[in-house]
Amino acid sequence: MKSCKEIIDLLSEYLEGDLPGDEAGAFETHMALCPPCVDFLENLKQTRALVRSLRCDEVPPEVQRQLRTFLDRATKRPPKRGKRT
Ligand SMILES: [Zn+2]
In whole angstroms, what is the distance from residue 71 CA to residue 48 CA? Predict the structure, then answer.
């Protein structure tokens, strides 16, 4: 089974529909067993929907750049849910 980190790495491709069948199967198997990754996927979906709802000509280049950096980081960071401080 794939680790959470591997799954997070695949999230963007999964959402784009770019994952090959066997990878998508492994992804879905992990999702079925790992609630934190499901939450992370939901968050990412919502963020992407928000980004898509913005019209590019209304977003200053600087904000677009920051958004891209944020999304890039978000898809590379493993979920931190359940960790006690
Ligand atoms: Zn996971």
Answer: 9
